[in-house]
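haha ok so turns out i had the wrong file open the whole time. this is the CORRECT one, sorry everyone. sequence first:
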Amino acid sequence: MSGILDPSYGLAEERRARLVKRIVLWGAVVVVVGGFVFLWFRNWRQEQTVKQFFSLLEQKKYQDAYAMWGCTQDHPCKYYSPDAFNEDWGPSSPYADVAAIKIEHEDNCGSGVVFDLETPHAHPAGLFVSKDNETLSFAPGPRCPGRHLQIMEFLKSHLG
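then structure:
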């Protein structure tokens, strides 16, 4: 039987306490890193859709860009004709200089993501990218309703 003077007295409890501290610390690290990665990449597909749209506009492939709205020349959208698209995004539009377009805000809005666009040549506009089929449309408003935490915008502006 070991007593208080035994050198191994309390050693098991100390090891167990260290193990619990490590598990809690690593668990917290995994939760924080996982949350950060989730917030950083949750709209990645929609961001790529907007980048592809801008790339098509830059390459002057307006029919392909119009197709990203779910419309084609053969089957134009009921409320957004190819002529209206060219007025909004074509070579003589305020958004013709794609390099000058900046995404100011990015909001998750239930079934899609709203990207607020700013350019020196036009009033701010919003693009809505559907999460279901990655089609584009104009955003119903400048931003999604409700309060907006700007944590990810802050991190993206300072880290990347």
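The beta strands are 102-109, 112-119, 122-130, 136-138.
again sry for the mixup
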